[in-house]
């Protein structure tokens, strides 16, 4: 897994160098950035990770990936710095669901529920599946059997249930209602699609 994720990323390097200036890398759209920033803050507070060094990057990533949590750059001693990378070519609704899903994994890492070693994926402090088996399943998600196994990993069950729940909770929040009431017509159209 480390090999897969531990790639040179100029945006990540830029973020680390400018850490005091920027927490999240979002889009070029001021309207969408208001939405994404507010949603990220909402999710981080909900998961009690707002004081972590976790970051969200909405950026162009390898076309084979929609998203991933880059834990390869997180050390065992400091699990508070996962990087969530979301493909910016997705729609706002998909991006928000993915942020909710992947932030669940960041929370699981930060709180010590999810981790990996050189030999296994760990859940709640115990070996759950060998890293080799896990990588084989992930590489072959197009097969129904592997997809079913993957979707039933406990960390995925939790993350998938949060995709819709967290987005719906956000849509009911005062912040979202204020954002709707102060947005221009184009932004309101986007927000209504969420």
Which properties best describe this structure?
alpha+beta; single chain; three-stranded antiparallel beta sheet; three-stranded mixed beta sheet; globular; disordered N terminus; 6 strands
Can you give a write-up of this model?
The protein is of the alpha+beta class and 194 residues long. 52% of the residues lie in helices and 13% in strands. The protein is built from nine helices and six strands. The strands form two sheets. A three-stranded mixed β-sheet has the order 1-3-2, with helices on one face. A hairpin with a 2-residue loop joins strand 5 and strand 6. The longest helix has 19 residues. It is globular, with a radius of gyration of 17 Å. The N terminus is likely disordered.
Q: What's the layout of helices and strands?
A:
Layout: H1 2-5, H2 10-17, H3 30-46, E1 55-59, E2 67-70, E3 83-87, H4 92-110, E4 114-116, E5 120-123, E6 126-130, H5 131-139, H6 144-151, H7 154-171, H8 174-182, H9 185-192
Give a short overview:
This protein has nine helices and six strands. With 194 residues, it is an alpha+beta fold.
What ranges have pLDDT less than 50 throughout 5 or more consecutive residues?
Answer: 1-22
What is the overall silhouette? globular
The value of Rg in angstroms is 17 Å
Strand content: 5-15%
Topology as a string of helices (H) and strands (E): HHHEEEHEEEHHHHH
Spatial strand arrangement across the major sheet: 1-3-2
Helix content: 40-55%
* Gap between N and C termini: 33 Å
Count of distinct strands: 6
* Mean of all residue-level pLDDT scores: 78
Main sheet characteristics: 3 strands, mixed
Helix count, DSSP H or I runs of 4 or more residues: 9
Q: Which structural class do the helices and strands define?
A: alpha+beta
């Amino acid at each position: 897994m480390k090999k897969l994720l531990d790639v040179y990323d100029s945006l990540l390097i830029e973020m680390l160098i400018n850490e005091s200036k920027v927490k999240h890398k979002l889009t070029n759209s001021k309207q969408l950035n208001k939405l994404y920033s507010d949603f990220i803050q909402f999710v981080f507070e909900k998961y009690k990770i707002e004081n972590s060094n976790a970051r969200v990057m909405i950026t162009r990533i390898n076309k084979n990936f929609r998203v991933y949590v880059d834990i390869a750059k997180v050390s065992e001693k400091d699990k508070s710095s996962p990087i969530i990378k979301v493909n910016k070519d997705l729609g706002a609704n998909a991006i928000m669901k993915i942020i909710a899903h992947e932030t669940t994994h960041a929370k699981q890492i930060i709180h010590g529920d999810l981790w990996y070693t050189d030999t296994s994926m760990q859940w709640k402090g115990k070996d759950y599946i060998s890293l080799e088996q896990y990588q084989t399943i992930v590489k072959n998600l197009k097969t129904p059997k592997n997809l079913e196994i993957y979707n039933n990993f406990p960390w995925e069950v939790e993350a998938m249930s949060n995709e819709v729940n967290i987005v719906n909770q956000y849509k009911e929040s005062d912040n979202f209602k204020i954002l709707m009431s102060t947005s221009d017509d184009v932004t309101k159209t986007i927000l209504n699609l969420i």
